[in-house]
Amino acid sequence: MPDPNIPSLDHYQIGLKLRRLRNRKQLTLSRLAIDTGLSTALLSKLESARMVPTLHTLSKICRVYGVSLGHFFSDIRKHSLSITRKSHLEAPRQSHESVRRIPLHYGHIGSARCGASLLEFPPNVLVSASEPGQGLSGIVYVVGGRLELNIGGDKDVLEAGDCACIDTEIVTVWGSATKMACQILFVSV
After folding, report:
1. Mean per-residue pLDDT over the chain, rounded
2. pTM to 2 decimals?
């Protein structure tokens, strides 16, 4: 019977992670046994969670897979993934839109603390990125064109390939700085 004073490792699902890594590398248990110097019987017990590996055993396996020990001790329940397909990004521009905002993630992403969008500014269009008291926090990467960034009257122009980290409570205005459209990647935090 397990000691109630000793925390369980079950929620890390180490066996499941071991099996997924082996399948991803397309290795058999026999091949993994040769590469690690461990027996196939031991490896089978570890993958089926009938046995908990020692750190020494796990470190041998880590070397073969090219992962750190931390890989096995991250909580599998706190994982989220959001994939946006190219077809979602190719929606036509609506004629009444001044700025086209394309979310790069759809739906709820668990406890995600950030959001990513592709913003397309038409030529010579500046819009408010934040309202008084709301603030703006995130990372801007200029994909194409030139972005005018005006924070409280201080104006900067970013070229394609430039990046800016913004964390401000001051009203921010941004948009295309030229007669050409501007496209940015904005990750809010």
Report:
1. 80
2. 0.50
